[in-house]
């Protein structure tokens, strides 16, 4: 504190001396005011007297704290569409061997991350995914029930920046998701699919490409896809403080509302705040009790119908056949890969698509009729009067989505669907728009596909990647000529 006073006094003296040196006659000129008497000018001798009064000189104040870039800048850096970042992950070899021995356990181990010359750690590192993410990538006996040790060079990963309950963030995010894209020969499904949803006004995670190294060795090309969590809702909604539910549909397969406990179990936000599921439950109860012909009125009170129609237009156009419209029937009949967000200010629910790795696969010539993920029905159609039926390459049990109290009425809004579809095809889904995006991203991706081919025995050949890209572009061209249902 004394040092601060002395510096201040010294500055005041210097200013006064400068004024004195510029003065003439009996006074110093004040440009904006009256003259100052000469007796009031601080002389050099007086200045020495002032300085000598400060006898104790504490150490200088500490230098200002300079935050690492990852602590001071936003997630826009992370998801910059013009940059393919390298994520260099380091894990103790013994810990890496532990998760490699059983990746489906999805257990975190401690590691660190180096990104753009800066290192953050410790962080949590684990493999992630459902059946599709591990398919043919473990040495267990049943590929459809993955188990055993890791056999593929790369698997989808999750990095937990707030490891061990710390508050650390990385460009504003607490978790980083790196998707392997092992089943996507184009390496474009997620990025293109989310971009198309976003261009139609649907709140979706940002997705780009990333290069990943593990313990100094190139692991491969990944999709870097934004986590849907509380930070996501705060950035995408005027009021992002509401409940976010992962993969809990409002209705059971028989059309009855789900129990509150199921919603609470699916919460991704507000879990520790004695939450209720009153909003989504009330919506489900009102729609389940709606009189015939009034369903859309009820839906409109709780959901932006125009936005939901737009969501379905894109969903059908890209054949997102492993999403909300595919009701598999194993332990009950349920759709997959989605979130619901409750806005507590508007009392509106919003459907958020998720996990687009199988999108585009069942379009046109590249799709295999009766594949595992292909949906049997056109949008709004019903098979076997809502009974469970078998379909696809493995004859998996499923049920028509249009039997659902929400999807059924929405699928009958044909005029609204056709209008949104026409806007979509003329805009983001137009050949010019799609081809420009693919050309831009292909430039970023091809050299990494080549690096994987040169580095790993299971690396996709560049020739095969180019063929897959050409097939997808051809299928999208053909899809524009259909009605999209």
Outline the structure in words.
By secondary structure, the protein is of the alpha+beta class. It has 4 domains: 2-53, no CATH class; 82-226, no CATH class; 232-425, no CATH class; 431-479. The chain contains 16 helices and 16 strands. It has helices at 2-21, 44-53, 69-72, 75-78, 93-101, 131-134, 189-199, 230-236, 260-265, 278-288, 295-302, 305-317, 407-411, 414-426, 431-455, 462-479, and strands at residues 27-28, 36-37, 85-91, 109-115, 118-127, 157-160, 175-179, 207-214, 217-225, 244-246, 327-330, 332-334, 338-343, 348-353, 389-391, 396-399. The strands form 4 sheets. Strands 3-4-5-6-7-9-8 form a 7-stranded mixed beta barrel. β13 (338-343) and β14 form a beta hairpin. It starts with a helix and ends in a 6-residue tail after the last helix.
């Amino acid at each position: 504190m004394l040092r601060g006073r002395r510096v201040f006094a010294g500055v005041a003296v210097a200013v006064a001396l400068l004024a004195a040196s510029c003065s003439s006659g009996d006074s110093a000129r004040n440009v904006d005011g009256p003259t100052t008497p000469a007796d009031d000018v601080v002389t050099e001798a007086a200045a020495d007297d002032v300085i000598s009064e400060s006898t104790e000189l504490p150490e200088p104040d500490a230098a200002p704290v300079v935050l690492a870039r990852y602590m001071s800048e936003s997630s826009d850096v992370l998801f910059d569409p013009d940059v393919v970042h390298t994520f260099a992950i380091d894990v103790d070899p013994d810990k890496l061997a532990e998760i490699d021995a059983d990746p489906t356990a999805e257990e975190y181990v401690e590691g660190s991350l180096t990104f753009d010359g800066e290192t953050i750690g410790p962080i949590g590192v684990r493999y992630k995914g459902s059946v599709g993410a591990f398919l043919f990538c473990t040495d267990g006996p049943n590929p459809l029930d993955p188990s055993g040790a890791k056999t593929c060079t790369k698997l989808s990963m999750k990095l937990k920046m707030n490891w061990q309950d710390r508050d650390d963030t990385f460009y504003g995010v607490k978790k980083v998701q790196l998707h392997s894209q092992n089943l996507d020969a184009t390496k474009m499904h997620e990025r293109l699919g989310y971009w198309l949803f976003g261009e139609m006004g649907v709140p979706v995670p940002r997705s780009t490409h990333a290069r990943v190294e593990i313990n100094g060795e190139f692991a491969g090309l990944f999709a870097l896809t934004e986590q849907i969590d509380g930070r996501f809702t705060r950035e995408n909604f005027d009021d992002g403080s509401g409940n976010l539910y992962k993969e809990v549909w409002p209705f059971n397969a028989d059309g009855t509302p789900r129990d509150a406990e199921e919603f609470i179990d699916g919460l991704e936000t507000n879990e520790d705040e004695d939450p209720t599921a009153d909003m989504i439950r009330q919506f489900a109860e009102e729609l389940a009790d709606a009189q015939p012909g009034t369903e859309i009125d009820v839906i409109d009170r709780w959901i932006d119908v125009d936005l939901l129609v737009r969501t379905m237009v894109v969903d059908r156009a890209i054949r997102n056949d492993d999403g909300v419209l595919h009701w598999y029937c194993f332990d009950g009949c349920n759709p997959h890969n989605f979130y619901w967000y409750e806005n507590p200010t508007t009392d509106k629910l919003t459907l958020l698509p998720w996990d687009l790795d199988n999108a585009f696969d069942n379009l046109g010539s590249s799709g295999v009729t009766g594949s595992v993920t292909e949906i049997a029905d056109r949008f709004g159609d019903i098979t076997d009067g809502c009974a469970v039926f078998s379909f696809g390459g493995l004859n998996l049990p499923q049920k028509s989505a249009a039997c659902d109290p929400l999807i059924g009425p929405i699928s009958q809004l044909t005029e609204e669907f056709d209008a949104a579809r026409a806007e979509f095809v003329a805009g983001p889904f137009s050949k010019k728009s799609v081809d420009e995006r693919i050309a831009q991203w292909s430039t970023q991706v091809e050299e990494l596909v080549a690096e994987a081919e040169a580095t790993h025995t299971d690396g996709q050949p560049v020739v095969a990647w180019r063929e897959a890209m050409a097939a997808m572009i051809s299928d999208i061209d053909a899809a524009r000529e259909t009605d999209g249902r």
